[in-house]
Amino acid sequence: MNGLSLKTEVTFNATAAQVWRGLTDPAMVKDYFFGTNLKSDWRVGSPITFSGEWDGTSYEDKGIIKEIEPEKYLSYTYWSSMSGTEETPENYATISYDLDAKDGVTVLTITQDNIKDEAAKQHSEQNWQMLMDAMKKLIELPS
What we know:
Layout: E1 4-12, H1 16-24, H2 26-32, E2 37-40, E3 47-54, E4 57-69, E5 73-78, E6 93-102, E7 105-115, H3 118-139
Antiparallel strand pairs: 1-7, 2-3, 3-4, 4-5, 5-6, 6-7
Helix pairs in contact: 1-3
Family: Belongs to the AHA1 family.
Pfam families: AHSA1
Protein name: SRPBCC domain-containing protein
């Protein structure tokens, strides 16, 4: 693997359990992630897939769960069928979610590696922020 990596943080006015559910519940993911179908049994070594249709093109992004500690940490490999790359080990990234909760507030730190260039890094950072903003609207209680 080569390329760049990113780290972005999002603060939720929600418990770790609520944020975890937002990341792992297929119905919630479908709601904020453009109709994406998420499938996994959430066990180390098991597949994780994200599938759907974007701009009239079907996609199936995939990976393998590397580490999981419910409501605290999740790491998986990731390859996108829309990335324009072959599905080979060197084209997979690793994505991780680290949840740090205190007093009803959860800070989610997202990391992603193996990003091909600065433009792709900026695109990924914008996508993460957009997705997490959409997830916030689903899980945060009105203040």
